[in-house]
Amino acid sequence: MLLPITGEDGFILDLRYATPDNLTGSPIYTRPVALLLPAARERLLHARDLAARLGFRLKVFDAFRPVEAQWALWNAVEDKRFVADPRAGGVHPRGAAVDLTLCDAATGAELPMGTGFDATVPESAHGHAGVPAEDQRNRALLLGLMTAAGWDHYKLEWWHYQLPQARGFPALTAAAVPGGPM
């Protein structure tokens, strides 16, 4: 069962795949909804609380991604290291991954991270030498908060986190979405 994460939970939502502001240039979700497995939602709530104690909020770009949406991204991205092969399922279609960033709690402004969300460039990797020191610190802060809350990261994307056991859950289609397909 997938559960929603919302602004009422204290998150800032910027669900890019429900807008044309994404890698494909077109919306791939028909409605903006962020969903996670219960275990992933619990860990994200924990990360939210850790961030809040330090004066930050989490901005969520994506969470559960139906297999159909995974295909849209797979077909749009040239460098396949940045999108999991839909035939293998990936971790977003399992409801066990989230894409996010840190924001200042007072202003809502995103902390600089050296690249934008979904930038399919080498500089998006954790620890990339071409990223300014301040942006590296911000990435390290996000990594520390998410790791402390029980998440694992993908080394090529500073914004991507997943449950350590993510591949143990089944990949789901849009039909699994509460309230109808996304």
UniProtKB/TrEMBL annotation:
Pfam families: Peptidase_M15
Site description Transition state stabilizer, residues in chain: R65
Top-level taxon of the source organism: Bacteria
EC numbers for this chain: 3.4.13.22
BP terms from Gene Ontology: cell wall organization; proteolysis
Keywords: Cell wall biogenesis/degradation, Dipeptidase, Hydrolase, Metal-binding, Metalloprotease, Protease, Zinc
Active site, per annotation: E157 (proton donor/acceptor)
MF GO annotations: D-Ala-D-Ala dipeptidase activity; metallopeptidase activity; zinc ion binding
Cofactor: Zn(2+)
Catalyzed reaction equations: D-alanyl-D-alanine + H2O = 2 D-alanine
Top EC class, one word: hydrolase
Residues given in the record as Zn(2+) binding sites: H92, D99, H160
Cofactor binding: number and manner: Binds 1 zinc ion per subunit.
Family classification: Belongs to the peptidase M15D family.
Function: Catalyzes hydrolysis of the D-alanyl-D-alanine dipeptide.
Identification of the protein by name: D-alanyl-D-alanine dipeptidase
Organism: Teichococcus coralli
Species classification: Bacteria, Pseudomonadati, Pseudomonadota, Alphaproteobacteria, Acetobacterales
Annotated gene: ddpX
